[in-house]
Amino acid sequence: MNTHVKITQGEVADLSRRSFLVGTAAAGLTLGYAVVPGLDTALAATAPSNFDPSVWYSISPDGLVTVTCGKADMGQHIASTMAQIICEELGADWKNMRVQLASNDPKFNDPVLGAQITGGSWSTMMNFDAMSRAGAAGRIALTEAAAGAMGVPAGELTVRNSVISHPKSKKSMTYAEIVKSGKATKTFTPDELKAITLKTPDQYAMIGVSVPQLDIPSKTNGTAKYGIDVMLPGMVFGMVVTPPVRFGATVKSVDDSAAKKVPGFIKAVTLDDKTGSTTGWVVAVANTYANARKAADALKIAYDGGPNAKLSSQSLLDEAKRLQALDDSGQFFVKDGDTVAAFGTAAKVMEAEYTTNINIHAPMEPMNATAELKGDIWHIYSGNQFATRSGAIAAGAAGVDPKFVVMHQMWLGGGFGRRLDADMMVPAVQAAKAVGKPVKVIYSRENDMTMDYSRPLTYQKVKAGLDGDGKLVALNHDVVSAWPTKRWGIPDFLSPSVDKKGPLDAFTVNGADFFYTVPNHNVRAILNEMAHNATPSGQLRSVAPGWTFWAVESMVDEIAHAAGKDPAQYRIEMLDGKGANAGGAQRLRNTLLAAMGLAGYGTKQLPKGEGMGVACVSSQERATASWTACVAHVAVAPSGEVKVKKLTVATDVGTQVHPDNIRAQVEGAALWGLSLAMYEKATLKDGGIEQTNFDTYTPLRMSQTPEVAISVIANGEKATGVGEPAVTVIAPALGNAIFNACGARIRALPITAEAVKAAMKA
Amino acid sequence: MRACIGSSLGIAFPQRTTRSLENLFSARGFQNRIASPREPDHSCGQGWHRPGGCQLPESELSAVSGIMHRQGRKTMPTLNINGHNMSVDAAGDSPLLWAIREQLQMTGTKFGCGIGMCGACTVHVNGEAVRSCQTMVGDVAGKKITTIEGLSAKGDHPLQKAWIAEQVPQCGYCQSGQIMQAASLLAKNNNPTKDEIVAHMDGNLCRCMTYSRIQKAITRAASEMRTASNTSTERRAT
Q1: A710 forms bridges with which residues in the sheet?
Q2: Confidence band for B49, pLDDT divided at 50, 70 and 90
Q3: Which of A44, A320, B13, B148 has its CA 20 to 30 A from that of A190?
């Protein structure tokens, strides 16, 4: 989370005051602790009831602990991680832990963010304390109840594996027995919760252990339920027909005469989307999805292509270059020292342009949502990363107050930021409204790709000034892109600019505020309005650091070579930890050294055509950084063909909750980085995304997967995120390795053999 | 800390020791750890409901299927799926994938791309791995179809056990297809080389990039299958 974003703990974040948010959100951020729900009921009930020490979990009379996860689980096993953090303090037996996914009830809002949003590699770091306290509160309440029942002082009791024992008298009670007795009565005020002394790392029995992930068995036998698997009585199916232009087209007419001949066809619904996300879309509704697809194919729709119908990737890039060249474009994200003066006295000035193409999320589960109106309440079933906003958008599509929308969270068949968006709610709700039945809308892969909220095309210009000793003394860094977060329309997710020219989207420049000591340093965030309108962009796994570090870490390498220094050593010298960089810079330096050591960087002569390159990053944001470094080892053929021999990644995550999961996430993230760097490219032509399926948009496959060596550093600092940072370090490490292998400097992603060959000649 | 770890879980359990993982996974009660969504909704009058899944009681599920049967089509193709003959109300030229998912309510087989480029929809037809999005209902009538739900009686095919032991799935969406694809390899070759595994699995995309764990799990399952087959051979011999 950027430092500028308000994330005040203990009070409702400004976010929840937005009019489109759920109506009762303001009451949500009590952490569920002001009263302890369930206790009164437990006492009053005749039959044994559950014990609900907090909103986050419930213990049933059979001793099973069911944790409700307010985070979207898209494969990062966050539900299991939340259960693990609770289990640590609760003292429960891991075998008794269960997980379920929260609805959009504000009581399940993130305790720090004040909303239900999953992203930024934030979940573990922002929920660790709340889950720990929730777990501890339950343990204390159960212990006191056991003490009363046994007639012994609570201080003499020990807790292990859901059993409370009194060693002196050899008495013991299980959690199940205590819950059954209904005697767990202690309640906690927020202050009392805050006052609980949590375990110290040396006391951990669960944190740091690779316990079996609770969701994995259901993902090996077909029983895990994703949004696409939702089945409701009486439901029908919707297939969307999207215009040939990514955004801005409108429907002129719909001819459904041929569709009416498709068996089971019910209706063609033209969307009326006040949020503007699905303008120009039509839904073909039929009794089965196969029939809906046939009907969709049979619809004859005439479009007005709108203002973006002639645009291409080249137009967006040309516009970006035009904007960058203007002195008054954009706003300053960083403005340290005086770069103009420093360039005036620099011994050497270097300039370079770095670009990235459009990238598509393409999670394996295509976008989908199921909507059903029951009484006054709209029930929406979908795997979604931003229930707070998506519920409000569903409400907008239905024309009701958001408090009449219940979001039923499902397992996400991949998220990667795509499911932060809510476009799929609109066709589901409006089709359900139009036909008076529950409707499940499933995007075809073609819909999913061409209507993605993509990683934007980016253009960056970097200008560096070196003094006579080759030290970097001035850096101007301009970042031109669509602004994904601005599109959300939530002011609190934007950040004030340093030059007070209004808010900027820090999620386009994060990472450019690196931990190197550079006395004169400017970063400008420039909105490419044309790209913003033509290719509405989204948060794609790792977001801004996925492109800012491509520029920074490539440029630092170029500078080091120009100064005649080893690029790794050059970085280490700039990571001196002076001023505001204290602490972080040293951690990043240590991580880089760890990666170098693990890779054997510089220890041996590599064969001709091979090279190692380094990069190190403080992704995701300066305030929430994990410290990550990579040594990439490549072999480059004379044809320009690049073979990635090995990626060595070191990452400092402070505290490991689940070491095996961290490795899985870091490896997945590193390979995402490789896929983006070498295999994934989308292009805009005539206003539409040209790639429509996995035949032309080609993520990494097994045969392209190199060895990935991982070193995880856990030094006792607070737990940081691991889902994204390793994405961002790969492309620059590869580019730098290619340069070391063959002298070709690549400045555009994805890296192609043609570009490498051309750069070799240059 | 290591000592505490072991005592907490009741067994020795250093970080990521697969043998220990196996012990844990085989422990009773470790399957299906997702809370069952049996719990009824407790509406509190504001539209907020207690969390729960979407799974419906059997009676309501059949009501969904009922929708499909009101089309009044004369001929209903019969499919042999997981050892059962089931009639589906689907046109012969419609994809097997949707008949399995919607009409038979077996949702373990997933839709990914619709053009046979991702493998999420992989099932077996007469033991061969096929893409069910590219296989038409009319072409498989009378043939033996196996889906992830029918790969093993209790989700304990050596590949499924290996998938858990290696903690392969992340989002899990592609994994039914990965397992079915791998199963068709091991049925013919229980000692595949790495290259053979890669060649056989390269058509199955995993967007979470769990490829290295998939390879490890296939190797592990193959090893278990060889051990089992050696044991049974020895038994026969004696």
Answers
A1: A649
A2: very low
A3: A44
Pairing relationship of beta strands B122-125 and A331-336 according to DSSP bridges: unpaired
How many degrees, rounded to 5, is the angle at CA A8 between CA A2 and CA A11?
Answer: 155
Integer CA distances (angstroms), A716 to A81, A584, A652, A657, B90, in order: 18, 14, 10, 11, 59
Average pLDDT over residues A248-266: 98
Q: Which DSSP letter does residue A682 get?
A: B
Q: Which of B136, B116, B128 is nearest to B181 (CA)?
A: B128
Q: Higher confidence at residue A612 or residue B236?
A: A612
Alpha helices, H only, A380-422: 387-398
> Residue A177: enclosing H or E segment and its boundaries?
helix A175-181
Residue A48 confidence (pLDDT) above 80: no
**Contact call for B67 and A77, based on CB within 8 A:** no
Q: In this complex, is the C-beta atom of B64 within 8 Å of any C-beta atom belonging to chain A?
A: yes
- Computed over every residue of chain A, the mean pLDDT equals 92
Residue A434's H or E segment, with its range, is helix A425-435
State the DSSP H helix or E strand holding residue A368, giving kind and residue range, or none if neither: strand A368-374
Higher-scoring residue by pLDDT: B214, B70? B214
Residues within 8 A of A (CB atoms), B 119-138 only:
120
- As a whole number of angstroms, the distance between CA A204 and CA A136 comes to 13
Nearest CA in chain B to A378: B47
How many helices (H) and strands (E) in chain B? 9, 5
**Tens-place pLDDT, residues A471-493:** 999 999 999 999 999 998 888 88
Report the complex ipTM. 0.93
3-state SS assignment for residue A373: strand
Determine contact, residues A533/A249, Cβ cutoff 8 Å.
Answer: no
Spatial separation of the C-alpha atoms in residues A53 and A58, rounded to whole Å: 7
Instruction: Find the residue in A nearest to B119 (Cα).
Output: A364
* Cα distance between residue A389 and residue A671, in whole Å: 30
Tokens representing A257 are: 């005469």
- d(CA B215, CA B217) in angstroms, rounded, equals 5
3-state SS class at A414:
coil
Q: Which residue of A has its CA nearest to B46?
A: A403
Query: Taking a C-beta distance cutoff of 8 angstroms, is the pair A394, A345 a contact?
Result: no
Only one residue has tokens 């979908």, namely A382
Instruction: Quote the CA–CA distance of A503 and A527 in Å, as a whole number.
Output: 11
Work out the angle at residue A3's Cα, subtended by the Cα atoms of residues A526 and A618, and round it to the nearest 5 degrees: 80
Closest by alpha carbon to B5, among A206, A211, A715?
Answer: A206
**Sign, Cα dihedral of A667, A672, A674, A675:** positive
Residue A136 structure tokens: 């501890």
Quick one: tokens of A695?
């035949």
Alpha helix (H) residue ranges in A436-519: 445-450
Q: What are phi and psi of A397, to 5 degrees?
A: -65, -30
Nearest to B47 among A68, A404, A667 (CB): A404
What SS3 class is residue A295?
helix
A103 phi-psi bin (left φ>0, alpha ψ -120 to 50, beta other): beta
Nearest to A299 by CA among A266, A332, A322: A266
* Closest-CA residue to A76 (of A477, A661, A755): A661
- Joined together, the tokens standing for residue A179 give 């819950």
Reduced to 3 DSSP states, what percent helix, strand and coil does chain A have, rounded to the nearest 5? 35, 25, 40
Q: At what angle do helices B194-201 and B175-186 cross, to 10 degrees?
A: 130
User: How far is it, in rounded angstroms, from Cα A159 to Cα A741?
Assistant: 58
A341's CB contacts (< 8 A; 6+ apart) are A520
Q: Among candidates B162, B160, B220, which has minimal Cα distance to B192?
A: B220
CB pair distance less than 8 Å for A224 and B34? yes
Parallel, antiparallel, or unpaired: how do β-strands A282-286 and A377-382 relate?
A: unpaired
Q: Of the candidates A233, A263, A370, which has its C-beta nearest B71's C-beta?
A: A263
